[in-house]
């Protein structure tokens, strides 16, 4: 007769064996299922499908089918790319259908998402729909702040409709209890400057400052650039002084705007001094700054100073861009320094950067005139390798210069 202990051991061993068998069966079935699943071809991800689709109708249907797919709706690029391509195809009805549907989904209650919808309407040039989205935000349970106001304002400025912009700024903040911020001011001043309504832009800045909005360097830089562009240097200089007096320090863009104005006025030495002030204040000049100062010295006839600034650019670890090459090569040819112009042009062309046709033509003429046929042939050979290529008539003109001495 079996003892109670033996029976218990037997029962326990049987239970363990059964459990092991059950687990083994589950693993076998899982493996079998996974093998069966792996036999099916893997489906292309939705984002990849959207990117590859070129037919507007199919693109619309594909995006619509993925309206609840977070990987799609939370991907800024996928949204922008889809809207951009549908706009390019003139399917604004599809754009409105997709974006209006997105508002009804849970993400439509987030202001950040609605801001994206507003900006996408703006990208498609659908200004009315963008502004209507702002006014209708309460319908889908989304709270308005100055962020959505600024998004709608930015899109509205694309219309260049001064009356509509004025009405929106006057009525919307009061209606929805929104306090404007410095970004609001910058959007309006930029729009007014782009429309060449400079005095009104200046008055907006003054009025907003009186209303308690603290202006920033972007506000002053935008206005300075516009006034300098219209040769109203006295206002531009006044804005510079006002900015500094208010304790708002200029940034790189501000310095470049002022240096550009000084170069335009043929005040190259002052432009160079201002670049020195930048370095003193810890603001590092960029390629735009160097190009402006180099151009200033070249235009004023100080080619040696331009060469010194060019050398300083290299000494500080910068590499010249195509605009700097263009400026230097053009004025070196004008000054008769064809050897240095040749060295720079060869370096530039080897990077697949090409100065304009007139400059290459002048360089070839100079090299041929000084008996430097080998160097002229090097430039011609590099010109033939350009991608995209020069036109046949342009290459024929280059070859004609060399043929005159052969």
Structural account:
This protein has 406 residues and is mostly helical. It is built from 23 helices and no strands. α17 runs antiparallel to α18. The longest helix has 35 residues, at 4-38. It is flat. 33% of the residues are buried. The model is unreliable at 1-21 and 30-43 (pLDDT under 50).
Q: CA-to-CA gap between the ends?
A: 122 Å
Low-confidence segments, given as residue ranges, are 1-21, 30-43
Instruction: Look at the structure and give the mean pLDDT.
Output: 86
Radius of gyration: 33 Å
**What kind of sheet is the major sheet?**
none
Question: Quaternary status of these chains?
Answer: single chain
Task: Specify the structural class.
Answer: mainly alpha
User: Share of helix among residues?
Assistant: over 70%
Number of helices: 23
The SSE order reads HHHHHHHHHHHHHHHHHHHHHHH
SSE order and pairing:
Elements: H1 4-38, H2 46-52, H3 56-65, H4 70-73, H5 76-88, H6 92-103, H7 111-123, H8 127-135, H9 146-157, H10 162-176, H11 182-194, H12 198-210, H13 217-229, H14 233-245, H15 252-264, H16 268-280, H17 287-299, H18 303-315, H19 322-334, H20 338-350, H21 357-369, H22 373-384, H23 392-403
Helix pairs in contact: 5-7, 7-8, 7-9, 8-9, 9-10, 9-11, 11-12, 11-13, 12-13, 13-14, 13-15, 15-16, 15-17, 16-17, 17-18, 17-19, 18-19, 19-20, 19-21, 20-21, 20-22, 21-22, 21-23, 22-23
Could you provide a short overview of the structure?
The protein is an all-alpha fold and 406 residues long.
List keywords for this structure.
single chain, 406 residues, mainly alpha, 23 helices, 73% helix, 0% strand, flat, disordered N terminus
